[in-house]
Fold this sequence. Notes:
Keywords: Hydrolase, Metal-binding. By secondary structure, the chain is of the alpha/beta class. It has one domain (5-321): Metal-dependent hydrolases (TIM Barrel), CATH 3.20.20. 40% of the residues lie in helices and 15% in strands. The chain contains twelve helices and 13 strands. The strands form four sheets. The chain has a six-stranded parallel β-sheet with strand order 7-8-9-10-11-12, with helices on both faces. A three-stranded parallel β-sheet has the order 3-5-6. Strands 1-2 form a two-stranded antiparallel ribbon. The longest helix is centred in the first third of the chain and has 17 residues, at 45-61.
Amino acid sequence: xxxxxxxxxxxxxxxxxxxxxxxxxxxxxxxxxxxxxxxxxxxxxxxxxxxxxxxxxxxxxxxxxxxxxxxxxxxxxxxxxxxxxxxxxxxxxxxxxxxxxxxxxxxxxxxxxxxxxxxxxxxxxxxxxxxxxxxxxxxxxxxxxxxxxxxxxxxxxxxxxxxxxxxxxxxxxxxxxxxxxxxxxxxxxxxxxxxxxxxxxxxxxxxxxxxxxxxxxxxxxxxxxxxxxxxxxxxxxxxxxxxxxxxxxxxxxxxxxxxxxxxxxxxxxxxxxxxxxxxxxxxxxxxxxxxxxxxxxxxxxxxxxxxxxxxxxxxxxxxxxxxxxxxxx
Length: 329
């Protein structure tokens, strides 16, 4: 039997070695043009790299073995920079591909692609496939996950284009898709319907930010269809308190959904959107250590078993990250 592996910054890793996994995180979030022309006063690359290295080493000591970095184009992905972190830590880092476009893409995409002014193949699909099959931006680091976004605006024409390219890339490579959703509008259902129509099995989907919702009917509908829900914003208490997030997970565990949820934070070691000083003052638990230090003990106290925690933190991420069999060319 061929060993099942997942691509990381340091190359393929056996699925059995992924261990406890945070499946929706960021190392650094930026904005390429602003970073050049209007740099954030709190950004110092050397300091940020050292902060990330120390943070990931603490995570290892807490038992975390793998972190998926879902920073894609549109929010400052710089794989070469993150590789400087990955080379110094014991935690496995997984890179991702996709485009963070909640409404419109940059103008380049309006002129490039089939039937457009300049023409040629779809650059989004070319990008996603290259990132997965060859490597990202000449680094040789291959993406292990696809990321797409729908927010309040829903599936706009440009968002649809990103999702279509992601669906094709998923079918051709077997790499899973994770999403950003706007939980109040329940638009994970729209995402699920879209990807099913485009040939992506629900079992290859993580519908993200479901932890922002207390609507159990909504969450059940996603999971009953075969998708996994990302309970992935622990610590983001300006959106929803952790106590409420824990209660939702416990309720779904009691109903037998342990095999359809993954836990994470959607945190970062630096983000210019919500910089470190703001986070420390306003959301002090929004960091990559929150689940290990605060949330897992609360889940245990609420009745979650060791087997259920292992399912949430180890078995589910490993199953999702393992590429499925690609479709025939």
